[in-house]
Amino acid sequence: MKSYYDLLETTGTATQNELKQAYFACLRVSHPDKGASDLDHFNLLQKAYEVLRDPSKRKEYDAWLKEQLIRADDVFGIVDEFDWDSTCQTGDHLLESLPSCRCCGDSYLIESEDLDLIIDFAYFDCASCSVKLKILKV
């Protein structure tokens, strides 16, 4: 699972100054004015830096990331998968189109804010049982 830290080629222990340096180093390579053609990657870099440079947003993101890593380590049971085309489905519309848990029929514990943090994939728990939903961003 990729994180905002991975995108900026730094670590979770990076200082604000180190984050800024990493961000600008990535921009030098990825900025459209420098000939880079992947606008989605450029936008992700901006989003990552926007979150990580703000201490309160970074704290929330770090907690979310820690939770995701725990969920990923805990995946030994049933996992449902959902391919998410983020260019077609966003926010509440995506939440409405998610499948119900195949084990108990309940919904998964997902907030629309969680969707903004997914880079490649993330896990979410069922509200009633141990099944997890893996959302793959395609």
Automatic annotation (TrEMBL):
It comes from the Eukaryota. InterPro entries: DnaJ_C/III_chloroplastic, DnaJ_domain, DnaJ_domain_CS, DPH_MB_sf, J_dom_sf. PROSITE patterns: DNAJ_1 (PS00636), DNAJ_2 (PS50076). It holds the Pfam family DnaJ. Transmembrane segments: none annotated. Residues 3-65 form the J domain. This is J domain-containing protein. It comes from Panagrellus redivivus (Microworm).
